[in-house]
Amino acid sequence: MNINTEQSRNRSANTKPLHIAVAITGASGAIYGITLIRQLLNSGQQVSLLISSAGRQVLAVEHNLDWSADETILEQQVQTYFAPQQDQNLLTLSQLGVIILPAMPAFYSQPQSVEDMINFVVGKICDTLDLEHHLFYRWGETQ
Description:
The protein is of the alpha/beta class. It is about 40% helix and about 10% strand. The longest helix has 15 residues, at about 115-130.
């Protein structure tokens, strides 16, 4: 995901929604993308979805997602683009300013479910975008 960091740092002063591209390639972490898209749409952001054919298959099989009838995506009018799978050099991408945020849940929050771990990672992405959320408790916060 390529993020304009200057715009991200000033989110509290800027009420204009961000336009964020989310890419789903076909790995089993596709649920992170779907959860992130829902969180972004709920916070009023504009989302573009880039998805490979393998990504569509993973979502259809693992998450029983019917592309012709998924109400969240259709009602929110997410722009969807289909892209072939490509290997990218992470160093090159980071040098271009792309923020690389690995999906690594923390266990200090003592997650009770897979959903808690997914929400942690999605919450960290929202933190990077300076978007308010209530997906997890931060270190030192009480529940």
